[in-house]
Amino acid sequence: MYTQNELNAIYGSEIGIEFEFYSDYNHKDTAHKLSEYLNKNIHLTGKPHSKFKPSADTFKLEPDLSGGKRMMELITGPLPFVESKLIISKMFKWIRENGCTNENSSIHINVSFDKNKVGPYANVMNLEIGKFVLNFDEDKVYESFPDRENSVYAKSIKFIFPLNGLMQSREKINWNNYIYVNEKYYGINFSRLKDNYLEFRYMGGKDYHLRYHTVMQMTEHFILSLYNSLANPIYDKQDFEKLSKILNENKDVMDSYQSFKDFKNKFPDIKLLVDLQTSEQIIESFYPKMRERIFSVLTLSGMQKGMINYDSDIGKIQIKDAKLLKCFELKDCDIVDSEIQGNLYNCDIFNCKLINSEVLECNLFTNTEADSCKIKNSYSSRNVLIKDSYVTGSMTIFSGEMEGGVFREGKTTKFAKFENTEVIKNKKI
């Protein structure tokens, strides 16, 4: 049962919905039929991510090429909670009768509040992100949508790391001292705070349109989680305990920060090198220069064994024979003969296996395989195999082999091969 304040928050909320789906009709006919059925104006944009802003009276329909040419996205403006329930119900019924959803489809819920109904807690821009992250019950969502837990588009927000290896003060929480999620491909898109709402991206998957009651339960969970953090922004004892529990997962990393000796004690299965030299005297002398980079790699990847080489000429880290299964925006590394899952930026990758990863402005070389990934503005050489993934970006250059998935945009060489892949925009070079 909800308290009166919780009921006020729910019925004082304004909900925007983004439905990703496939229609039995073309875009024009779909827009016409949805307009009549929902009794709303439908603006047909003709391209993804258009700048047209939908309202409560005029929605927009546009292609969503992440799911191929046939996927569409209907985006509403913010609606009073009661009306949003009706629109979700009717839209789900329309999809049942006129289309479908698959594993590439999702439904996003955008939450804001009517200040006339919620009062001083309606300003979502005031959200203390740390307070929200520490208290949001993410497991509740993944229990309802377990297939989304490993989705590259809805990753966990429970990533919190100190900016450096020095232990943070336990007397107060200063969120500026920590690294946390700040881009869109997580379960919650915090970049929308500047527009005074929060975007929840957790829900979706095949036949999500058959799960009305679950979607509404999760929507209420999102609303109340946001409202409670706005109404109670001060960190309390329980928040310190939650933060300590998360940070303790990296206690060995922080304990290894002071010296090479400490590092060896905490990570005996990771071999450090400097310019490919194994001399402990050399490593000891370079450790103060390289420890920040090492600290970053360990906290942002979950690495427990393998090799780390520090190139002293360019200050670059090179990783080999590692399992990097918790990558959180790992940047500017060379990675060889490793398993990877998570987010990578500006890395050179050799003979690795990637799964459920977001790969941005990277170079993939030499027998690398990527499965269920989003790869943007990256280079893929010959002998690279990409399966059931989404490749996009005008700076993409592709010479590898792709099986399944969607090649949305990029340049391809004469060596590129596609099998059962939907190729949308391909410039041959």
Strand content: 25-35%
Can you summarize the main beta sheet?
20 strands, mixed
Point out poorly predicted stretches: none
Q: What is the number of beta strands?
A: 31
Question: How many individual helices?
Answer: 11
Mean pLDDT: 91
Assign a percent range to the helix content: 25-40%
Structural class of the helices, strands and pairings?
Answer: alpha/beta
**Spatial shape:** flat
What is the radius of gyration computed over CA atoms, rounded to a whole number of angstroms?
A: 24 Å
- N- to C-terminal distance: 62 Å
Total domain modules: 3
Topology, please?
Blueprint: H1 4-11, E1 13-23, H2 27-38, E2 41-44, E3 58-63, E4 71-75, E5 79-80, H3 81-98, E6 99-100, E7 107-113, H4 115-118, H5 129-135, H6 138-144, E8 161-162, E9 178-179, E10 188-189, E11 198-200, H7 212-231, H8 237-248, H9 251-255, H10 260-266, E12 270-274, H11 280-301, E13 306-311, E14 316-320, E15 323-331, E16 333-336, E17 339-345, E18 348-350, E19 353-355, E20 358-360, E21 363-365, E22 369-371, E23 374-376, E24 379-380, E25 385-387, E26 390-392, E27 397-398, E28 401-403, E29 406-412, E30 417-419, E31 422-428
Parallel strand pairs: 2-3, 12-13, 14-16, 15-17, 16-18, 17-19, 17-20, 18-21, 19-22, 20-23, 21-24, 22-25, 23-26, 24-27, 25-28, 26-29, 27-29, 28-30, 29-31
Antiparallel strand pairs: 1-4, 1-5, 1-6, 1-7, 3-4, 7-11, 8-9, 10-11, 13-14
Could you please describe the fold and organization of this structure?
The chain has 429 residues and is α/β, with parallel strands linked by helices. The chain has three domains: 238 residues, no CATH class; 67 residues, no CATH class; 108 residues, E3 ubiquitin-protein ligase SopA (Pectate Lyase C-like), CATH 2.160.20.80. Helix content is 28%, strand content 30%. The relative contact order is 0.09.
